[in-house]
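Purpose: get a first structural picture of the assembly so the mutagenesis plan has something to point at.
Setup: two entries, given in the order below. No constraints added.
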Amino acid sequence: ETTVTQSPASLSMAVGEKVSISCKTSTDIDDDMNWYQQKSGEAPKLLISEGNTLRPGVPSRFSSSGYGTDFVFTINNVLLGDEGIYYCQQSDNVPDTFGAGTKLELK
Amino acid sequence: QVQLQQSGAELVKPGSSVKISCKASGYTFTSYDMHWIKQQPGNGLEWIGWIYPGNGNTKYNQKFNGKATLTADKSSSTAYMQLSSLTSEDSAVYFCARLGYGSYSYWFAYWGQGTLVTVSS
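Result (structure tokens, whole complex):
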């Protein structure tokens, strides 16, 4: 099983700042990393999928990079509406595994 | 559009079982796996397993072998997950989810709204 280590656990940012979240995997997963946003009381929403591809309708402020075992998710110019918990998830091998999440709060 | 509608919250006693449902619409139910994912309060997400409604094949996360049983009813386009021998560790929100596919990988593209299961005497 591939372990996904996500950091930091929480962030407190001001509007307009840049957010960076790291996910490290215990095995090489190529670029089979997905990123989700979960707002309070809702299901996770897919933001970025294979090959660091932004999903349709997702603002270009969101991006990701990485290959192999090290991945970074970035939000440029963070907005109040970006509050929530962000998860990474590897889809290279079964079982699918998720990072523990990063809770993003806006000051 | 793809929609997954889950059954309502459940309050169940320790040692009992519960069966939650996920009704699919907007696509051909028998052509896609249905996955189930657990989210405990304050915890992350755990993949439980999938069922392929077309033939009933299943695959489970080893951790949930014996705990979760996945079934599907083609006539009603509904997937089910039964959880047995419930303990407080099973108190969680459970999501059903359908995959989306790319050129070489997949992701959880569509999610139900979640079903809260609370295990308490």
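The radius of gyration of chain A is 13 Å.
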